[in-house]
Amino acid sequence: MEQSHISFEQVVSRGCGLDVHQENVVATIRGNGLEEQTRTFSTFTSSLRDLVAWLEESGITHVAMESTGVYWKPVFNILEPHFELILVNARHIKYVPGHKTDRNDSAWIAKLLLSGLLKGSFIPPQYTRELRELYRYKRKVIGQRSSEYNRLQNILETANIKLSTVVSDVFGVSGWSMITAIIEGEQDPMILANLAKGRLKIKKQELILALEGHLNEHHRFMLSLSKTVILQLNDLLGQVDNRIDQYLKKWEEEVKLLQTIPEYKNKQLPPS
Q1: Mean pLDDT, the chain, as a whole number?
Q2: What is the C-alpha to C-alpha distance for residues 13 and 32, in angstroms, rounded to an integer?
């Protein structure tokens, strides 16, 4: 069945359907006073600006596209200031009449757009999208740091350093001081145990037993690598947290109001 044989009531005056790929974007425009046209643009920024210029010259007000992987994002960002954009889940546009081509796909999206038959996905404002990206990146970095913690702990176990059996937080102040001393070449369990702080001092005899291992130069080298990575990740997390704080200043008053609610008092607000 040809697309031209399928008609719907028109609710959008002039619109464009985009079929987005990694290297190109196929755009079809339709609407009142327009002859249906399809053009292909590359995804380079200059070409996407040409797309914007063509759509504006054609009086396009609404643009619809599928949420294909991550390829829609740069296109969306460039078109967002100029048009009413609708991002559609690909599963909601299943039926493309006729032989399936990029041209037919974009034309079908344009037809559904003009008929008001597309349900757009919720796309938060750019400010919120950027903040979400920061939170997602932070979670990934925390995951990387946890993996490195585990790697360092496994190296200690391989060297028969049983620090985790005595110290609840191997990477706390005391544990980290002992690990650093081990990396720097200290082997005497008594000297290492004397680095304990606070209440951990009462476990000195247990620490001496736990810190008597079978370390060699390879173990120290691997521990040094893990320590370097952990410090780098800590620094990276600090930078991300500072950036997040800058974004949250915009909602400083809202955050304060939320924290007055009993449920939220003394709790860290989850990422949006």
Answers
A1: 87
A2: 6
pTM of the model: 0.71
Which residues on adjacent β-strands are paired with residue 29?
16, 37
Q: Which two tokens stand for residue 172?
A: 């706390």
Q: What are 153-164's pLDDT values in tens digits? A: 999 999 999 999
Residue 101: predicted pLDDT: 64
As a whole number of angstroms, the distance between CA 132 and CA 122 comes to: 14
The CB density around residue 160, as the number of other CB atoms within 10 Å, is: 13
| Nearest Cα residue to 69 out of 128, 17, 21 | 21
Non-local CB neighbours of 19 within 8 Å, separated by 6+ positions: 25, 26, 27, 65, 66, 102, 103, 105, 106, 109
Cβ 182 vs Cβ 223: under 8 Å: yes
